[in-house]
Amino acid sequence: MKTYAIILASGTAQRFDPGGPQLKQFAKVAGRTLLEHVATLFERTERIDEIIVVITPGHREMAQKLLKNSQYHKISRILEGGATRKESSHIAISSIQDAEAHVIIHDCARPMLSERIVHDCLDALQHHDAVDVAIPSADTIIRVNAQGFIEDIPERSALLRGQTPQCFKLSLIRRAHELAAAEESYTDDCGLIVRHKLAPVYVVQGERANIKVTWPEDLHLADKFFQLRSMSELPDNDQALTRLRGKVLVVFGGTSGIGECIVQQAQALGASCIPFSCRTGCDVTNPSMVQAALEKVALLHGHIDAVVNSTGILRIGKLTERNLEGMIQELRVNYLGAIYVCRASIPYLKKSHGSLTLFTSSSYTRGRALYAPYSSSKAAIVNLAQALAEELFEDGIRVNVINPARTATPMRTAAFGEEDPSSLLSPSKVAHTTLLSLASSFTGQVINVSLNEQLAVLSHQSHPTSN
């Protein structure tokens, strides 16, 4: 029996951008539109056979252009939806000609859907005809009357917050829509099943991260959830790193600290990894030197698969007390240097469909006193990478940012002096995470590397039988 995934992306975004031009299904978070995130999830889920996209009327051509990428093999049709969610759902269901099938219906506005939820839903559909997804309510729910006064406070333990997807036997949901054809619109398909008492609806445990993007600020929340997920979804075994064998990597800032560790680990994996820095006669603030370095590698190896820029300067002092030229040089290295590296790398990475990796700092989220130029330049790096991830997506170039916590590098020691080693990340850990990101399919991600994760790894290695 086939399994169809229906993506409902036909809303008009009245709450997201009322009266405005932007439909939220085309809004971008973590380097991709909400529609692409959901389509990608269903595309990579082996148990999904076909994908049906229902788009807002008048935007079918835009959706086709967005989803024309060769990675989407399962999308069988892109349909224009109706005036209501129920109508759009009915249009998709009616397009399926099978006598029976499994149908999973998901709102495009929930881009954080996990494969775990999808698999649990499809497992439940083996034993039930209708399946919903929900999570417990962390808030007290109140019922108010028309005058705005509390009328009732239901027992919270019996209340859940509904999410999507919702899953059905095709014959059941088809029957529900036939019975509800002349009725008022319902906000979800399970409501039709319950309204007409067609079948019990089994509930699968959802996830707090499976948020619905309703308001513009929800995009920022979704972006943070993608960051948190990025570490858990990185490949974490030696088999994944074998993908780097035979690859050609260039590391600017590759003769010290994190960059040096990246070079050593990549070479140990069988990659050709070439370091450049001021020590090798390549200053990233000089575009000609950067271009010459890449030309040299391309001439020697024939291609370049990945470029990493870990070059940086950190100086301490109050803005009004520091030397102006010194601060300008810091910005040249930390930001303009990254611009020069990215610009020179793009022609080579277009040919190889390669990867570009930049480095930020935990100070990018909130400026730190005494190193304002450094903090602000690192915030700029994140914006640069996210913008390039969008610009270069169709060229097949992935762009990510590594965000390490305080790390035991020569640069940090020069700025802060000797510190407790247990309070710092090891450069080798950050390098390892960087290589894992190069072996992944991520793009537009800020990949956090925290000390807690390092300590957890060390603890597991010391006590392999612990849970």
Task: Describe how the helices and strands are arranged.
Elements: E1 3-9, E2 28-29, E3 32-33, H1 34-44, E4 50-55, H2 60-66, E5 75-80, H3 85-94, E6 102-107, H4 115-124, E7 130-136, E8 143-144, E9 150-152, E10 160-169, H5 170-179, H6 189-195, E11 202-205, H7 218-233, H8 238-241, E12 248-252, H9 257-268, E13 272-276, H10 287-301, E14 306-309, H11 324-352, E15 355-359, H12 372-391, E16 398-404, H13 410-416, H14 427-438, E17 446-449, H15 451-462
Parallel strand pairs: 1-4, 1-6, 4-5, 7-11, 12-13, 12-14, 14-15, 15-16, 16-17
Antiparallel strand pairs: 2-3, 6-10, 7-10, 8-9
Helix pairs in contact: 3-5, 9-14, 10-11, 11-12
Question: Which properties best describe this structure?
Answer:
467 residues; alpha/beta; Spore Coat Polysaccharide Biosynthesis Protein SpsA, Chain A; Rossmann fold; 6-stranded parallel beta sheet; 15 helices; 39% helix; disordered C terminus
